[in-house]
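Structure in, sequence out. Go:
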């Protein structure tokens, strides 16, 4: 059975594309405001008994722990996505992310409730990770399985652009707050605003997602009684190589991506003493580049194949980390922008075609499970603790070169995985 087995009406196809893009934008906005707050304020508010450097490490540790819940979320959402349908899981994952995010915005700090503050922060972060473990797989498959033949990459990109779009939205909110509030006001209550705004955004996302139809591929599976009873077991038994190459191909993208979106803010403000507003603008410019690169490379993959695009992007991620930090260390805005623009072209090339690639690696009856689990494992191995590792390396060595070499190492791992991706 192929993903283009059942044609989708043009009007419904547009609604699915918009729902995938807007829904994942909201989901990842929630996820990224946590990353930004972890870099800027969580160390001071929830780990006040530690030194500034140790507080930052602890804050990034909570960021990483959330990634550990992703494979569990991938298995959970994947199982029911393959059994009950893609649409229902999209709605539930968005609700869970919204509840956890608003909870962070309402959470008392260490000065108010002591050790319970970091404990509850960790619990809410785990719920975010559980949600993110299944969100991407559902959104990606809805877009790809509705797509017409020969355009899976292009339509799959709508779920991918939610990541940079959510990042842009998150950074814009923090930028506006930074320009409107004093540092004391931001540390006291301003950081809560982005989390509480999630109530409105989740409401919009739910309305959009409830209006789309179920994936036509899953509808055929349900009608023909071809659904897998144990999708995760079946995918491990029948597609172990696909799980390995898919997970491995995502390690570099997520590791380097989180260095860009989380560690760069912390490193720039605390070590290089660059103005926070300047760094937020740089991150927004890089995110726009990432979004455009996703759209371009995804469409390109429909013409030349997923693997050649991935190879090109993976090589760029191997060679760029050292020049990236050399340019960042100049503290000059123009070189900061050059650094992040080139970096995000590589990120786009290894992320734009991902929805189509992962969908094509797994049979429809266990596709949600296989795609979600691979995505989650790659995220854990790559991005889960990347900011924490980068902070520890820079603190212990006193140089960004150690961070660059770490990123080169993870990029080489992904390049090897990409080489073993089967040709279409």
């Amino acid at each position: 059975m192929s993903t283009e087995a059942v044609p989708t009406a043009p009007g419904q196809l547009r609604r699915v594309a918009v729902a995938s893009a807007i829904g994942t934008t909201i989901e990842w906005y929630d996820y990224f405001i946590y990353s930004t707050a972890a870099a800027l304020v969580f160390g001071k508010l929830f780990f006040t008994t530690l030194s500034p450097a140790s507080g930052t490490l602890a804050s990034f540790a909570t960021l990483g722990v959330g990634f550990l819940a992703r494979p569990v979320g991938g298995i959970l959402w994947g199982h029911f996505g393959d059994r009950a349908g893609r649409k229902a899981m999209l709605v539930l994952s968005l609700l869970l992310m919204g509840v956890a995010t608003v909870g962070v915005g309402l959470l008392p700090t260490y000065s108010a409730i002591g050790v319970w503050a970091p404990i509850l922060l960790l619990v809410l972060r785990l719920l975010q990770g559980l949600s993110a473990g299944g969100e991407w797989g559902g959104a990606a498959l809805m877009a790809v399985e509705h797509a017409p033949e020969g355009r899976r990459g292009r339509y799959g990109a709508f779920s991918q652009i939610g990541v940079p779009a959510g990042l842009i939205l998150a950074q814009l909110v923090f930028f506006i707050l930074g320009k409107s509030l004093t540092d004391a006001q931001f540390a006291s209550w301003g950081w809560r605003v982005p989390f509480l705004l999630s109530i409105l955004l989740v409401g919009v996302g739910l309305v959009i997602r409830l209006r789309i139809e179920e994936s036509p591929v899953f509808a055929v599976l349900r009608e023909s009684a071809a659904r897998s009873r144990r999708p995760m077991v079946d995918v491990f038994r029948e597609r172990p190589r696909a799980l390995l190459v898919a997970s491995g191909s995502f390690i570099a993208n997520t590791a380097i991506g989180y260095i860009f979106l989380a560690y760069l803010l912390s490193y720039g403000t605390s070590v290089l003493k660059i103005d926070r507003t300047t760094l937020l603008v740089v991150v927004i410019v890089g995110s726009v580049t990432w979004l455009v690169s996703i759209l371009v490379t995804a469409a390109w993959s429909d013409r030349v194949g997923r693997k050649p695009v991935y190879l090109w992007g993976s090589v760029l991620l191997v060679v760029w980390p050292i020049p990236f930090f050399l340019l960042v260390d100049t503290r000059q805005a123009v070189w900061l922008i050059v650094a992040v623009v080139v970096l995000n072209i590589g990120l786009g090339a290894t992320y734009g075609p991902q929805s189509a690639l992962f969908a094509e690696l797994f049979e429809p009856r266990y596709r949600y499970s296989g795609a979600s689990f691979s995505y989650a494992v790659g995220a854990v191995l790559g991005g889960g603790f990347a900011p924490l590792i980068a902070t520890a390396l820079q603190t212990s060595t006193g140089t960004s070169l150690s961070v660059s070499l770490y990123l080169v190492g993870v990029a080489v791992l992904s390049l090897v995985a990409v080489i073993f991706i089967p040709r279409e």
